[in-house]
Amino acid sequence: MSLFTQYPEIRIPGARVAITGGAQGIGRATAELFAARGAKVAIGDLDGKLAERVAADIGARARAFTLDVASRDSFRAFISDVEAELGPIDVLVNNAGIMPLGSFLEEPDKATAAQINVNFLGPINGMRAVLPGMIGRGHGHVVNVASLAGKMPTPAAAVYSGTKHAVVGLSASVRDEVAEYGVSVSTILPSLVRTELGAGLAMPRAVSVDPADIATAILDTVRTRRAETVIPRWLGAAVNTANLLPARLLEAGRKLAGAGNLGLEANKSADRADYLRRIATQVGDA
């Protein structure tokens, strides 16, 4: 018997792929890429009308569904509706997320609750809705989009970072639970992504990536079933090495880099204000 899990192959052409937060940013890029490779794509988004426009743009291989990932009932209905229309889901991409920025002590309770509900409870709801069917069929793949903030301190985004640390631990634990049934769980950890979520942040080219880069990494996990993927890849080794250094040295380095001010400065930008207004209308006063 092999010491390594051998997962059943999932072929992208004809695969049914459900994507949360699928109408914008990483989600939209992922939907476009899977559809271009021949998959049937279900775009789940809180903004149902936007999801419909994106699905129309993508074409016949895409369908739109309204989804509130923070609601277990909504997620169950989403999975049921997708499977009724497209067939059993082969791949679920838990991508939906929000990132208010600011001081931990000054963050409104509604913003804290919204991040926990969307960023952490969302993947929990998604996996609990889709995994029983995948286990019953003996194959399936879940991709949880976390963040490099789930591996390192992120001042001015403390709760966001906490939710992403939680997703990393959740994904690794569930991965071990379901592997024997032929089902895999992979985690994607992007650095700074050039999307609306990162609006206003200073993004050096060396450590920032485009949504299409993340979409490519997500699609690649269907083949490799890799447990964790950091994008850009070289940053994973850098962070792992840095975490071995003495805490005082790391703290001094972050201070010199001005890491603690990035989020506070971002909030001064007009683009950031637009983003915060949008998520406030969706999930409360975030």
TrEMBL record:
<dbReference type="Pfam" id="PF00106">
    <property type="entry name" value="adh_short"/>
</dbReference>
<dbReference type="InterPro" id="IPR002347">
    <property type="entry name" value="SDR_fam"/>
</dbReference>
<dbReference type="InterPro" id="IPR036291">
    <property type="entry name" value="NAD(P)-bd_dom_sf"/>
</dbReference>
<protein>
    <submittedName>
        <fullName>SDR family oxidoreductase</fullName>
    </submittedName>
</protein>
<keyword id="KW-0560">Oxidoreductase</keyword>
<dbReference type="InterPro" id="IPR020904">
    <property type="entry name" value="Sc_DH/Rdtase_CS"/>
</dbReference>
<comment type="similarity">
    <text>Belongs to the short-chain dehydrogenases/reductases (SDR) family.</text>
</comment>
